[in-house]
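Justification of resources, computational component.

The compute hours requested in this renewal are based largely on the per-chain cost of generating structure records like the one below. Each record pairs the submitted sequence with a full structure-token output. That output is archived, and it is also reused by downstream analysis tasks.
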Amino acid sequence: MDILTIICIALSFAYILEWFLRKLKIDNFDKRFVLVTGCDSGFGFELAKKLDKMGFNVFACCLTKSAVEKFNETSSSKLKAIEMDVTKDASIEKTMEIVKRSLPNEKGLWAVVNNAGILGGIGPTILHTRQDYENTLAVNLYGVIMVTKACLPLVLQEQGRIVNTSSIAGRVGFFNSSYTISKYGVEAFSDVLREIYRTGAKVQIIEPGAFKTPIWKPLKQMSVNKIASLPAEIKSQFSDDAADKMVAPYKILEETGSTQYNLVVDAYIHAITAKFPRKRYLVGTDAKYTYRFLWNLPEIISDYFFYKQGIYNV
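The structure output for this chain reads:
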């Protein structure tokens, strides 16, 4: 038997073993507690509802009171909706007090899903202000960090897991500098956090491609507000359709985005329930194939691709 045949057999065995291990699930869902942020709509809302149906005890953290009331009206008693702003330490602390009071004695959190996120600033980098960066990082990065830090003792107690939502924009930068920077930060924080592996706890990163979620809804108003906020001498350089042009690159991503929310929710579920979860979950056809291919190519090629797609025409 030649060396090439041996290598092929070994690789085949490894893939089969990995496939088998990924199928193994934890049990006792009804005795495990999961905290999810950003549950007002989109992936967070769908995930909290599915976890509730699966029998988990869920802390669904929402930004708005109306979202909390909606959960209370439509969910089982095992789901507890909590109003929380991930950008405010006092709000996180108040939430943790509620969580700790709700947990049985000597019980921690099995999983924390940092799902909350915003699109952030809009337009080319030259138009991004310090406030654009601060607003975006406050939710997408600092919110992830501070919620994780607050929950970590309870996760370590259960040898549970932290599930952080990044994006393909955290692997290849091509639009919206404040959003992309925040997602690169989530990748870095999650990788460093793997130091907790020695305790038996785990860290997973979810990297979705483009999906048609409510995150795109305020695009036009954001662009109008951005142009209105510019100094007069800069504003005068823009044409009447400047707001539409500013939105165009984002619209390309929205229009080509997937409507299959279940793909992201299923990735979350696997990260929470698998005995041997993946370190990273690329979700969506674009993430698995187009962008994964692009971030391994020389920048001159990926830049050309984004330019031809119109994503750099801002």
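DSSP finds 13 helices and seven strands in the chain. The mean pLDDT is 88.
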